[in-house]
């Protein structure tokens, strides 16, 4: 099985300032740990709140387990989307298209 790439969008509701600080410290450590283990390849804060993560995992269940650990102490909504290399996807599409319609692509 090969490693797959996932885009993860996260959002949470209002948080009290003291709780926000505690959660920020906790999440910062979790992000460092995930980067060191090679699971997390990118993390961004989104304007207006929320976060975007790029994660590498064997499957969506592994991503779900990582996210559950990151939101164990607060309510967090995550949306997970698998990403594919665009150039490879286009090459595959064009190869399939050529096979189905003849060598000249018509």
Tell me what the structure shows.
- This is Muconolactone isomerase domain-containing protein.
- It comes from Nocardioides soli.
- With 106 residues, this protein is an alpha+beta fold.
- It has a single domain, classed as Alpha-Beta Plaits.
- 44% of the residues lie in helices and 26% in strands.
- It has three helices and four strands; from the N terminus they run βαββαβα.
- It has helices at 17-36, 60-70, 86-101, and strands at residues 4-11, 40-45, 51-57, 77-83.
- The protein has a four-stranded antiparallel beta sheet with strand order 2-3-1-4.
- It starts with a strand and ends in a 5-residue tail after the last helix.
- The model has no long low-confidence stretch (mean pLDDT 87).
Provide keyphrases for this structure.
single chain, about 110 residues, alpha+beta, Alpha-Beta Plaits, four-stranded antiparallel beta sheet, 3 helices, 4 strands, about 45% helix, elongated, Muconolactone isomerase domain-containing protein
Helix fraction? 40-55%
Q: Supply the CATH class.
A: Alpha Beta
Structural class: alpha+beta
Poorly predicted runs: none
CATH arch. level architecture:
2-Layer Sandwich
Outline of the structure:
With 106 residues, the protein is of the alpha+beta class. The protein has helices at residues 17-36, 60-70, 86-101, and strands at residues 4-11, 40-45, 51-57, 77-83. The chain has one domain: 2-Layer Sandwich (Alpha-Beta Plaits), CATH 3.30.70.
